[in-house]
Design a protein that fits this description.
single chain, alpha/beta, Immunoglobulin-like, 8-stranded parallel beta barrel, 7-stranded antiparallel sheet, 32 strands, GHL5, hydrolase, hydrolase activity, acting on glycosyl bonds
């Protein structure tokens, strides 16, 4: 049936939506409260046979556009849409539905529209308006629940109720249901995962299959391989951001329109294929899932992953979302109206949190996203949530907004709950003295809930455990963690610390005892068995590990959308070549194939080019023409293509795409060290069996380094459990070997006496050691327990 004959404008429902908005303004105690009520009805939703739409459109008031020139543009595909192919030419029937305006909002309702589901593609939509010259402008839906072609394209109407009704973890939520909203407790430990590099498939569906396979093997009590153990022993999984990110600056667009009439539209549609580490968001589309991460193009994949984790056989695993509302990339200006923004910052654009509509919409985006089934929320860059105080002419942190984030009540499978909240907040970052002056407790101390967490001082960005004196120089921070770290996320490996580590000059005082090559040194620094003992046994708080670090796979700043500054970004990443890629890895045929095709046939040739590039970026103040000229006259000549501005951009894109493939942990699984994997898994299980280790130290607990230093840093810890159990650990973090010592004879008050039992030793010690004198070397550690 033709689209025009199938659909009908539902005047009554549209008018009722507008009236509800009017009543909200008339009765709410504050404008913000009214906007919160209205925000629940924004976007496109399915109610029985009717599709209802709401848009916040202050730009139409700015442009003085009359209601008669505003329409809901409906696009219905005339042939099947296949979201699993790279390119398709589509033809859409097009229809225009009137709207009812109420202030800065437009509402409409339509019967007969097709809503998308797991198995069907729905109709697409956007709000469109006609200017005085007859030209059409389009307003995209920032709260869309399905964006098969990205945030810069029309949205798909999606049946969210049907998606939620079919989730397979309803029993998990039923057990939590009670009169008041359930409040999730902190997790015991966390595995941080970047979906595109976590499996060979690089999608949510492939990650779900991987967890399902592990689930099956655990259920059937089958032997577990190191690749299985890598994912086990964790109480929670935290995914790097899942929201739609930036698109290619200079194209191609994923939605390219060709022939168009009032009744029909031809589109060249591309499957989104950007590579991104997740933090370059445009804010629009935050309610749904980045289509790049969807194997089927269906947002149901995220619920599928939540269900597999929640139904895990030994114990349910929690799912934590990482949300980015502290900034928008400049591309957000293409997707949202100007009222969303409060001016530029180092990332792109600040958001106008003081605008009641923006504030309400952002919180509604968060609510809808977490309703996919997250048990916890990690807030990126909480120190960036700021507003300008005109009265005092200064920027202030918006702690009220952060509290509002933690107050949002979710509703999944009929159960209301509030997630566990984690904030990354290093204020006064980016002040020059932030590493010294940040307490990492600003949010914890200001929030009402006593279980709010922040990233701790060893978990923030500038973390270099592969440099000599790192551990001793950070001892004052470690003491803070020991005394006051119960509400901190701990651990040294995460997406940011590993990236920063690869940007450090290898000419600094590198701890060569960690390995024989730079790759070995970096890998062991962020997957150090002694550090795991420190994190999981000695320190309070909640430990977190980054999957790429635990797999000893590579990682870096991955983003292939840049055109203007892509070469500069690669220049900043150039040092990582020396840390993460050796000659053998480069020569593997599947690795760095794009760069090889451009003429960098060997690692040595690429290193030489990468040595030139950062220096020229700096001395020319990033003048690409001059950089290309100087590269072209280098003697002896550099490998690679003829250097032009265009070819430099091609090289930058090739580096990003090649590194994205190189960082996939599937490349590292065959070389996992079974002994290291088993030890780390055993350490995680040790912590999970003793949740009291998350508490701050008590009056009888002890922590210090062995005196005198004598060229090494050795930490010793004694902790007491509520049932009287004692846990003693000693860990050699850096420096020369110790003299032969008896660990249980160290001058640590409280370890005197007998009945200690050695339960874990780092792999390099060997199973033959069961106690007695030992020479501890770098990265060695021991864990003892004594029962009451």
């Amino acid at each position: 049936m033709p689209l025009r004959d199938r659909i009908k404008f539902d005047t009554t429902t549209a008018a009722a939506e507008a009236e509800a908005a009017r009543q909200a303004y008339a009765t709410a105690t504050t404008t913000f409260a009214a906007e919160q009520v209205i925000a629940r009805n924004l976007g496109g939703r399915v109610e029985g046979d009717t599709a209802v739409f709401g848009f916040w459109t202050p730009e139409l008031l700015d442009e003085r556009v009359p209601q008669g020139d505003i329409f809901l543009e409906v696009l219905s595909p005339t042939t099947p849409v296949d979201l699993t192919v790279s390119h398709q030419d589509l033809v859409f029937e097009r229809a225009w539905i009137p709207v009812v305006r109420e202030g800065a909002h437009c509402f409409t309702a339509v019967t007969g529209l097709r809503a998308g589901t797991r198995d069907t593609i729905g109709d697409f939509y956007a709000l469109s308006w006609r200017d005085a010259h007859g030209n059409w402008q389009r307003i995209l839906d920032p709260l869309a629940m399905s964006l098969p072609f990205g945030a810069m394209a029309p949205a798909e109407l999606y049946d969210v109720q049907a998606m939620q009704a079919n989730r397979k973890d309803a029993d998990y939520y039923a057990l939590l249901k009670k009169d008041a909203p359930h409040k999730f407790d902190p997790s015991i430990n966390i595995l941080q995962i970047h979906v595109p590099t976590a499996t060979a498939g690089g999608t949510l569906a492939s990650l779900t299959r991987h967890y399902q396979r592990i689930d099956d093997r655990v259920t059937k009590d089958l032997p577990l391989e190191p690749a299985d153990q890598l994912f086990l022993g964790y109480d929670a999984v935290q995914l790097l951001p899942l929201e739609p990110t930036t698109v290619y600056e200079t194209g191609p667009d994923f939605w390219q329109e060709a022939d168009a009439t009032n009744e029909q539209l031809s589109v060249s549609a591309l499957r989104p294929d950007t590579t991104n580490w997740g933090y370059d968001v445009v804010i629009a589309g935050m309610s749904t899932v980045n289509p790049v991460l969807l194997e089927t193009g269906r947002p149901d994949e995220l619920i599928d992953l939540a269900a597999v984790l929640h139904n895990f056989p030994s114990k349910a695993k929690k799912l934590i979302f990482d949300v980015v509302f502290g900034h928008s990339d400049n591309q957000g200006l293409r997707a949202l109206n100007n009222h969303f923004f409060a001016g530029p910052n180092m990332y792109g654009q600040n958001l106008d949190y003081q605008n009641p509509s923006v504030r309400a919409i952002l919180l509604e985006m968060q609510r809808r996203k977490v309703n996919f089934g997250a048990d916890g929320v990690r807030v990126d860059g909480a120190q960036d949530f700021k507003w300008w105080d005109n009265a005092h002419q200064t920027l202030r942190h918006d702690d009220d907004y952060l509290q509002s984030m933690a107050d949002v009540v979710q509703d999944v499978a009929g159960t209301q709950y509030r997630p566990w909240f984690i904030f990354e907040d290093g204020r006064p970052w980016p002040d020059e003295d932030w590493e010294l002056s940040s307490t990492y407790r600003a949010v914890v101390e200001n929030q009402r809930d006593d279980d709010v967490f922040q990233w701790g001082p060893l978990t923030f960005a500038h973390n270099t455990p592969f440099l000599y004196t790192f551990w001793l120089s950070k001892f004052w921070r470690i003491r803070e963690i020991i005394e006051n770290g119960a509400n901190w996320i701990s651990g040294t490996s995460n997406h940011d610390t590993l990236r920063r580590g690869t940007q450090v000059s290898p000419k600094l005082n590198v701890n060569t005892r960690l390995g024989g090559t730079r790759m070995e040194i970096l890998d062991k620094a962020y997957d150090n068995p002694a550090v795991h003992v420190l994190t999981y046994v000695a320190m309070p708080g909640v430990p977190m590990d980054f999957l790429n670090a635990m797999a000893r796979s590579s990682w870096g700043f991955i983003r292939n959308q840049d055109d203007q500054y892509g070469v500069k970004v690669v220049a900043e990443e150039a040092i990582s070549l020396k840390w993460q890629v050796d000659e053998y890895s480069y020569l593997v045929p599947a690795n760095f194939r794009r760069l090889k095709e451009l003429g960098f046939e060997t690692r040595e040739e690429l290193v030489r080019f990468m040595d030139f590039l950062p220096a020229l970026v700096e001395v020319t103040d990033y003048d690409l023409d001059e950089i290309a000229r100087l590269l072209s006259v280098a003697e002896p000549p550099l490998a690679g293509p003829d250097f032009t501005v265009a070819s430099l951009k091609v090289i930058a894109r090739a580096w990003m795409d090649d590194m994205h493939e190189y960082c996939n942990i599937s490349n590292a699984l065959s070389s996992l060290d079974p002994a290291q994997i088993q030890f780390c898994h055993a350490t995680r299980e040790f912590r999970r069996e003793r949740p009291w280790l998350a508490n701050n130290y008590g009056p009888k607990d002890q922590f210090d380094y062995i005196h005198p230093i004598n060229g090494r840093t050795v930490f010793a810890s004694l902790r007491h459990g509520p049932d009287g159990e004692q846990v003693f650990s000693v860990a050699h973090l850096e420096g020369k070997p110790t003299e032969e010592l008896e660990p249980l004879s160290l001058p640590v008050p409280g370890i005197e006496g007998k009945n200690w039992r050695l339960v874990l030793r780092t792999p390099s010690i060997g199973d033959e050691y069961v106690g007695g004198p030992i020479v501890l070397k770098d990265s060695m550690a021991l864990i003892y327990v004594r029962s009451p």
